[in-house]
Amino acid sequence: MIRITKRDGISSLLSVAIRVLAVIAALILCLVITFLFTGRDPLRVITEMVGGSFGTTKRMWEFLQRTMILSCIAVGLAPAFKMHFWNIGAEGQMLMGGLGALILMKFCWTIPSLPLLILMALLAIVFGAIWGMIPGFFKAKWNANETLFTLMMNYIAIQIVLYFCTIWEGTVGTVKIGIVNGKAEEAAYHKGWIGELFTGNFNDKDYMWLVLIVLVVVVAMWAYLRYTKQGYEISVVGDSVNTAKYAGIRVNKVYVRSMAISGGVCGFAGFLAVSAVSRTLTESTADGRGFTAIIIAWLAHTNPYLMVIFAALYTFMELAGKQMASAFQLNDYYSKILTGIVLFFVLGCEFFTNYKVRFSKKHKGGAAK
Amino acid sequence: MSGFLSFLSSFSTTLTFSITFGTVILFGALGEILSEKGGNLNLGVPGIMYIGAIGSLVGALWFQGATGSLAGSLGIFYPILCVIVCLIFAFGMAMLAGLLFAYLTISLRTNQNVTGLTLTIFGTGIANYIGGSLGSVGTVRADVTSDAIKAYITPLVKWLDSLTDKFNLGSLLFRHGFMVYLAILVAIALWYFLTKTRTGLSLRAVGENTATADAAGININKYKYLSTCIGAGISGLGGCFYVMEYIDGLWETSATIGALGWLAVALVIFATWKPMRCIWGAYLFGLLSWFYFLVPGLFKGSDKIFQMLPYLFTLLVLILVSLRRKPEDQPPASLGKAYFREER
User: Fold this and answer.
1) Are the Cβ atoms of A163 and B304 closer than 8 angstroms?
2) Domain A57-318, architecture per CATH
3) How far is CA A113 from each of CA A88, A104, A110, A187, A212, rounded to the nearest angstrom?
């Protein structure tokens, strides 16, 4: 007979151990599946897996860049999740942020580099914040279900981006804006590209700035949630709305303000994706990362540092899958299967951190459980 | 006058497209309603529809390949068998995906939103992986199954079309494969189940207040597992319909099924969890998505703006529902919450 009881608390060592075990189990399953699909030597499979992220300098930068953008979105979700507000709209908030950045990059490139980049980041934050505040406002005002509301906002954002991709398309019929300010003969060359400001060349090392900026965001969010009055209000609202009301916290204001911050940071991630990585905007600039970040933010229990670790793990699996796909002539979507498996395991293991499972011998005619 | 007639004709064509389009999301939404009425918010619908789609294609290809030599001797029964096998595969594979979701959220009590999103990633991956690999074998088409699913009664359609001149009522109403009508039947059956049967009422009790339902002696796990798995199966049929009727029994690696899956989730809200409202809601969503076809070139990019309308309408409904607070329009009260008996 199996008995399940809720744990009162769990030592951090045990909870880390459970998660590490889950990840190892998932990795072993991924190896077995890859072995079954390809019949290759498992050692070769492991080499390719690790090689996907760390094989060459270029791949390492790719790994860091992807990890950091994903972390930035996840960190943006932290204030919303901490107050138990299901912000599923990171995808749309990021896209709107990217749109804000792109508008300035495309039409206001005459502004000098540093002010231009700052303005781009600000407009991205404003666009993202507005996209976050709308569901926050309706939740505060009429208690509209935020999960479904933010979900719909994503698709409205995608259609808006598609609309601008149509009217600004680079080559007629492509519905693609194309690389902005990428032609050497134009005066706008490299304007609004983050790398221009810092180093003047555009190889992968420019991702270093992206990494540093996101690290600052991560630490700032950690400090905001932990040491400020607003961060404290967020955690009270998250624990109990009634307690918050009784303590005189204006819950509605906290909803709207925190969603503005949440959307703003996600919009900032959109700015980074546009200015530092793609230098253009498509409907897949967010590429599902808004949803992946939700899983990561939730797994990390709103701890920004853990988010970076989970984002790194996710990116590692993603790149491992891509690398194996190209090395063993599998299809590109192979990496989605692998990341899915790892996430399922890490999700499932939460059960063992929250509940205790005991196996005991069945009593003869014993009482029903 | 002739302008009006040609408008009528293109309107009827648009409506026909809308019905086909609407049927995909109708299946998806009906499955999701069943799941949500049991309190399980399954955001894995896009993934499940992907899995249903690839399941139907694999099943049909396998059956056609394995029994192709029997086709002559079985005559008319062979395509029927193909369709049955195809539907079983679509339903079964989608149910397995639902079972995974059910196990994680009900038994392991993981968060439903997060598990659903993971299932969407996983389902998209596995379906496109298999589908893409099918493409590398050469172009494969489940032709017998697809043609059988798309078959319609030609004389009836022609007769009605001749009666209604430009509006082509016959094509509009009857030039669809049987799954269009199956979707409507499922909606009616679901409505009957949820409002008129004891089991349906018990299921709704589970979705509204799990602890009370538990105290009333309802087997919570059984209800939740079954509603989630069967719901996933129904959603999976939407993927099957998409592959077999919408794109002729082929596989195309694109994000379309995913987008339709999210539209299905939107439709559930739009219909305020009512199966009958889903039927016309699905066709309305279809009409909105194809509206640009009716007024082509209104302005540049107008199609993108029109395709935004289903989501905007859904938002409006969501706001109105929370504004008016009518109890019968609200989401199930325990939607999205894991249940643990010892924690009250």
Assistant:
1) yes
2) Orthogonal Bundle (1.10)
3) 34, 12, 9, 13, 19
